[in-house]
Amino acid sequence: MTTADIGPAKLVPAAGEGIVSPEKRPDVTVLYHLKAAAAPLTTTVFQGSLDTAPSADQEWHWAIVQARGIAPTTPAQGMVGGEERKINSLLTTDH
User: Fold this and answer.
1) Rounded to whole angstroms, how far apart are CA atoms 48 and 64?
2) How do residues 48-85 score in pLDDT, each as one tens digit?
């Protein structure tokens, strides 16, 4: 028997051609921007409403993407004027 007797090779899927697998629905990513005040070093609950409710068969996850503090507009209690100037001078770029 030679390769001419067999013919060209064919690629056949292992599952056959009759089975069609259901396609996975694409993931949906939603970002919510929550802005609220919280005291330092405390536990705080931030609440927001969802536009849609996830269905019972829908898998969902949440994560904190970014959290940052915003400096108060007035100096904190106990901050001495000299210390405040020293800290501010370290933050400027005109050294």
Assistant:
1) 13
2) 787 778 788 878 888 877 777 777 677 656 555 544 44
- Show the tokens assigned to 60: 């969902």
pLDDT of residue 76: 57
Q: DSSP letter string over 28-92?
A: ------------TTS--------SSPPPTT---------------SSPPTT--HHHHHHHHHHH-
**22 contacts 12 by C-beta, under 8 angstroms:** no
C-alpha distances (whole Å) from 34 to each of 9, 50, 53, 62, 68 are 60, 12, 18, 14, 11
